[in-house]
Design a protein that fits this description.
Blueprint lengths: L2 H21 L4 E3 L1 E2 L10 E4 L2 E4 L5 E8 L2 E9 L11 E2 L1 E3 L4 E6 L7 E6 L2 E6 L5 H5 L7 H20 L33 E9 L4 E7 L2 E9 L3 H11 L12 E6 L5 E7 L6 H7 L4 H19 L2 E3 L2 E3 L1 E3 L8 E3 L5 E3 L6 E6 L2 E3 L6 H4 L9 H5 L7 H20 L19 H4 L5 H10 L16 H11 L10 H9 L8
Parallel strand pairs: 7-10
Antiparallel strand pairs: 1-4, 2-6, 3-4, 5-6, 5-9, 8-9, 10-11, 12-13, 13-14, 14-16, 15-16, 17-18, 19-22, 20-21, 22-23
Helix pairs in contact: 1-3, 6-9, 6-13, 9-12
Bound molecules: 2-acetamido-2-deoxy-beta-D-glucopyranose (4 copies).
The site of one 2-acetamido-2-deoxy-beta-D-glucopyranose has 7 residues, from strand 11.
Length: 499
């Protein structure tokens, strides 16, 4: 086709788009939000309980289930353009049924939601003004407009491809992921259980109990999984046994073992002398040099985990941690941080075109109390969990929270060295055990983040820290830094603190 013809087609399409955008009524959605400053209030003009959508054709609704009773949390227009193929509100339940969500594309469709729980079919209608329901009947377009509509959809989807930023919440699969299929592992020898002496319990986790023990004359950490969590053991073992997995930023793996009757499964690791980063920060404050070392070693570990390496004919695929928290980072005697707890990680390698992931849904996470480290898009559930870049962007968000935790205990960043007690991210705002509903509202809907002390803006390196943190926990996953960029930013900070 020649250029002129293309121009003509484009012009005609443009005219159609103009007519379309002027004549197609804007989507109207039932509106209710439970918090002020909710992000959804900006999605369109609100008149009583109806919102006229500014940017999208999609209505959303969120219900949180409290004591088995669904309670409306948000009814509104969607904030960004996403696909919403359903005309009616088909419920999608998440977090073991604690959250119900739907997206639909007809006027006021978010008012009625139906879902099945086990055998029951439930129907819920939200109404606080009666007149609007009548108006909810689908607007029938004359034939001409239907044709225009389809042409415009075509133009719109073209635009979306050209400007992926507009489609914030859909993450395309990374095309650069190595197509190589490499499923070999280094296969460490099994440790005889009789060679391990368990001494004392260090930590009781959800899936495993961590013991201090003795193995071949050294003090080690032994993670003991009961048989019911064998799949978590297997997933974690698989990560440790990947080729080239030895790194200063990853806890040193010594081997695995099992009880002869298979009642428990063991992972033997080098003991990190100072325990978890969380317990370290609770007990100690840091200075600038030490906190920078923590941040650097932590970021180096994550950078290594995310890396896709080929060396000596072996391949270490990228791994997304997916469960980063200050409890899953350990501090060694040389003041470096190491990563551990890979039971929920995803190995991003491709065998016959399929991602191998030990856990493909986030449901498992909810039981572990790490909801607070989950990125807004993972909380909300709109990411494609099969996409490697999405999972790594989720890790970067968590890394940002960890850097914040470390610097919030750095005496050089507080006047007179008076450092506030250690707090987990969102602990001061949402308490020690935040509910999913509150996190979703605070982090996703209101786009809040841990607060950065105002006086940091006046400190010599304060604004650089502030920028680094906000670029890690950006609402837009595509705008977040990569681990490589985090390392470069950290390297550009002065190693010594001089006020
Ligand atoms: C809001 O809706 C009512 C009736 O539903 C209408 O009379 C009124 O003009 C609307 N207000 C605005 C600002 O659109
Ligand atoms: C919602 O459900 C109610 C009761 O089931 C029904 O009367 C009403 O027409 C429905 N409204 C829409 C917009 O589907
Ligand atoms: C910072 O803290 C570390 C570890 O506690 C200590 O060894 C070092 O001397 C401190 N540096 C300064 C400048 O105070
Ligand atoms: C998610 O990505 C995978 C991998 O490319 C793809 O096969 C799948 O269809 C995607 N799912 C959704 C819901 O987009």
């Amino acid at each position: 086709m020649n250029l002129q013809l293309w121009r003509l087609i484009l012009t005609v399409e443009c005219i159609f788009v103009c007519i379309y955008s002027q004549t197609l009524p804007k989507r109207r959605c039932a509106f209710k939000v439970t918090a002020q400053n909710n992000k959804y209030t900006t999605a369109g003009k609100v008149n009583e309980s109806v919102q006229v959508c500014e940017n999208t054709q999609c209505c959303v609704s969120y219900y949180v289930v409290i004591n088995g009773q669904p309670k409306v949390d948000v009814l509104a227009c969607d904030i960004v353009e996403k696909s919403c193929p359903d005309a009616t509100c088909k419920a999608e339940t998440r977090f073991n049924g604690r959250l119900i969500k739907c997206v639909c594309n007809t006027d006021l469709c978010n008012r009625n939601i139906s879902w099945t729980t086990g055998s029951e079919q439930l129907q819920l209608t939200y109404s606080n003004s009666k007149d609007e329901v009548l108006e909810a009947t689908v607007i029938i377009l004359p034939g001409l407009f239907l044709i225009l509509f389809f042409m415009c959809v075509a133009v719109k989807s073209k635009r979306l491809i050209l400007e992926p930023k507009h489609n914030l919440l859909s993450c395309p699969v990374d095309d650069n992921v190595q197509p190589l299929c490499s499923c070999q592992t280094t296969g460490t020898a099994e440790i005889e259980i009789d060679d391990i002496k368990l001494q004392q319990i260090l930590h009781r986790g959800h899936f495993a109990t961590v013991w201090q023990g003795e193995y071949q004359g050294s003090i080690v950490a032994v993670k003991v999984f009961p048989a019911e969590w064998k799949h978590i053991f297997t997933a974690e073992k698989e990560v440790y046994e990947l080729p080239l997995m030895k790194h200063a930023g990853i806890v040193n793996f010594l081997g695995t073992g099992k009880e002869p009757d298979c009642s428990s499964w063991l992972i033997v690791l080098q003991l990190a002398e100072y325990g978890s980063l969380h317990s370290y920060l609770c007990k100690h404050t840091t200075n600038w040099t030490l906190s920078l070392k923590f941040c650097q070693s932590l970021s180096e570990g994550l950078s290594f985990l995310h890396s896709d390496l080929h060396k000596y004919d072996v391949h270490k695929p990228s791994v997304a941690h997916r469960h980063l928290s200050s409890s899953n980072v350990l501090v060694r005697a040389d003041d470096s941080c190491v990563l551990c707890d890979f039971g929920c990680s995803t190995i991003l390698r491709s065998c016959s075109g399929q991602w191998l992931s030990p856990m493909t849904s986030v449901e498992g996470h909810t039981q572990m109390g790490t909801l607070r480290y989950m990125s807004p898009e993972i909380l909300e559930g709109s990411v494609n969990l099969s996409s490697s870049s999405c999972l790594m962007q989720g890790d970067i968000y968590s890394l940002g929270l960890l850097l914040w935790e470390i610097w919030m205990r750095c005496s050089d960043l507080f006047e007179g060295g008076i450092v506030p007690p250690h707090l987990l991210p969102y602990e001061s705002e949402l308490g020690a055990d935040p509910m999913l509903k509150d996190l979703l509202q605070f982090v996703f809907q209101m786009q809040k983040r841990p607060s950065i002390p105002e006086h940091w803006a006046l400190l010599p390196q304060g604004s650089a820290l502030q920028e680094l943190l906000t670029d890690c926990w950006d609402w837009d996953p595509d705008a977040r830094l990569t681990t490589q960029c985090v390392l470069e930013r950290l390297a550009s900070l002065q190693p010594c603190y001089s006020p």
